[in-house]
């Protein structure tokens, strides 16, 4: 009767078989799988696009599915600073998140820079000698005396949108005048 109570393992050993290896614990197996996946997926994660940025157009009133400038900036700036990629890649992702007047403005500025024209600085420093007038405005309230980082005023989307459109108009006028001087008509 004692023989009937033998375990499966004891019977295998009694018949001359090799002992079966102990099954790994579920916890150990899960840790090993996690480490393997982490190592295997790391290159894929590093080359994959980062978290998609929210869109911003600068249009007032803010369209559905889009955020106002403050919310977009507060989300975008810290997120982009965390990314471990080149500044060019960061710029590309930020530009992909822009829509409407915001992307138009950046295109105009890029085109003017490519043509060698001076572009008003975003911090208000003069781009021409002897021009001490401060250029630029607050992207929060639309006023000329300060910038969004220092703004204590209530957000005014209509004024900001109007200022952006005025800036685009100025840039387009500068481009047209410069084009006329460099390419005179016969």
Automatic annotation (TrEMBL):
UniProt keyword Metal-binding, yes or no: yes
Matches recorded under Gene3D superfamilies: Zinc finger, CCHC-type
SUPFAM superfamilies in the cross-refs: Retrovirus zinc finger-like domains
One GO MF term: nucleic acid binding
PANTHER family recorded: PARANEOPLASTIC ANTIGEN, PARANEOPLASTIC ANTIGEN MA1
Keyword Chloroplast: no
Residue stretches of biased makeup (Polar residues): 167-177
CCHC-type domain boundaries: 138-153
UniProt protein name: CCHC-type domain-containing protein
Regions crossing the membrane: none
Species name: Terrapene triunguis
UniProt keyword annotations, A-Z: Metal-binding, Zinc, Zinc-finger
Region (Disordered): 114-133, 167-186
InterPro entries: PNMA, PNMA_C, Znf_CCHC, Znf_CCHC_sf
